[in-house]
């Protein structure tokens, strides 16, 4: 069975024009190849500017590679149209870091979650409403939250709304681009627990884009390390997480050691 998504030798170059004219082209991605199989949970790790979000945008078809190709279930994205394109759109969804920027402040929570159902499925209004209510419960919110506006939701609640919207069309792959980075540690743990539960119930593959190695071992079975647009390492996460590449070891060494407990707080 072909992978959900395959990237083959993709490269992406940006050239920015500033006030003083065009800057030298910058390679955001260089010769990146990877497959994402059904049910996999993959962490895409790398420092700021390493190319993580660029790869996410290419996999989601939001931008085209300058070289190489991305395929959905064996078909090149560039050749997808009509029903085949709608199937791809339904099957691959993304949650961004900035939930406020990703939601229309004038739409209710229910309308936000129902967006992909309206555009990508044939569900009628009643069926959409029932699906929205069950999605709200699935992400730990109340069905009546459907009537609220984004401004009436906390950051963590609005991120759950974005996750509910992303899983609404029952995708085969969910990409999370720093989706929990803005949340406090307690909320991060709650979201990770939610993602693990969704993975086991929906058998959905997850590509978790992050720079935070601590979150990786909690629910990823594979880790890909990016640096300067190139894959440095693509390894299974066993019981321990031993990264071997220089970049991987650097990231691992950078994890803040658990703060030493102040003597006064140590158990008597
Ligand atoms: N639209 C763009 N125009 C110009 N340069 C871009 C563009 N998008 C990304 N870049 C550059 O490509 C490189 C990779 O950016 P990207 O956003 O993919 O990194 P990232 O790993 O997601 O970083 P972060 O962790 O900060 O989100 C960076 O040097 C960035 O400046
Ligand atoms: Ni990014």
Automatic annotation (TrEMBL):
In terms of domain of life, where is this protein from? Bacteria
Q: Which Pfam families match?
A: ABC_tran (PF00005)
GO cellular component terms, alphabetically, are: plasma membrane
Q: Identify the EC number(s).
A: 7.2.2.11
Q: Where in the cell is it found?
A: Cell inner membrane
Which CDD domains does its entry note?
A: ABC_NikE_OppD_transporters
Membrane topology annotation: Peripheral membrane protein
Example GO molecular function: ATP hydrolysis activity
Q: Give the UniProt keywords, A-Z.
A: ATP-binding, Cell inner membrane, Cell membrane, Ion transport, Membrane, Nickel, Nickel transport, Nucleotide-binding, Translocase, Transport
Reactions listed under catalytic activity: Ni(2+)(out) + ATP + H2O = Ni(2+)(in) + ADP + phosphate + H(+)
Q: Top EC class per UniProt?
A: translocase
SUPFAM superfamilies per the UniProt record, alphabetical: P-loop containing nucleoside triphosphate hydrolases
User: Does the keyword section mention Aminoacyl-tRNA synthetase?
Assistant: no
ABC transporter domain: which residues? Answer: 5-253
Job of this protein = Part of the ABC transporter complex NikABCDE involved in nickel import. Responsible for energy coupling to the transport system.
Record-stated family? Belongs to the ABC transporter superfamily. Nickel importer (TC 3.A.1.5.3) family.
How would you summarize the oligomeric state and partners of this protein?
The complex is composed of two ATP-binding proteins (NikD and NikE), two transmembrane proteins (NikB and NikC) and a solute-binding protein (NikA).
What name is this protein filed under? Nickel import ATP-binding protein NikE
Q: What is the lineage of its organism?
A: Bacteria, Pseudomonadati, Pseudomonadota, Alphaproteobacteria, Hyphomicrobiales
């Amino acid at each position: 069975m072909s992978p959900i998504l395959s990237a083959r030798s993709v490269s992406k170059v940006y050239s920015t024009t500033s006030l003083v004219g065009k800057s030298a082209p910058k390679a955001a991605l260089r010769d990146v190849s990877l497959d994402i199989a059904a049910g996999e949970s993959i962490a895409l790790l790398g420092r700021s500017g390493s190319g993580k979000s660029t790869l996410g945008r290419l996999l989601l078809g939001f931008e085209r590679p300058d070289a190489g190709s991305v395929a959905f279930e064996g078909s090149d994205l560039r050749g997808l149209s009509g029903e085949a394109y709608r199937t791809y759109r339904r099957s691959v969804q993304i949650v961004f870091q900035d939930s406020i920027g990703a939601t229309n402040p004038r739409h209710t929570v229910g309308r936000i979650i129902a967006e992909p159902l309206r555009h990508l499925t044939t569900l009628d209004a009643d069926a959409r409403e029932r699906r929205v209510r069950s999605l709200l419960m699935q992400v730990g919110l109340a069905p009546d939250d459907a009537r609220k506006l984004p401004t009436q939701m906390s950051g963590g609640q609005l991120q759950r709304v974005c996750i509910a919207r992303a899983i609404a069309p029952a995708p085969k792959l969910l990409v999370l681009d720093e989706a929990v980075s803005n949340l406090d540690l307690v909320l991060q743990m709650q979201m990770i627990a939610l993602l693990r539960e969704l993975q086991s119930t929906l058998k959905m593959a997850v590509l978790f884009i992050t720079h935070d190695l601590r979150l990786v071992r909690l629910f990823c079975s594979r880790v890909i390390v990016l640096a300067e647009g190139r894959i440095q390492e693509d390894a299974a996460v066993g019981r321990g997480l031993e990264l071997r590449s220089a970049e991987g070891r650097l990231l691992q060494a950078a994890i803040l050691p658990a703060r030493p407990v102040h003597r006064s707080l140590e158990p008597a």
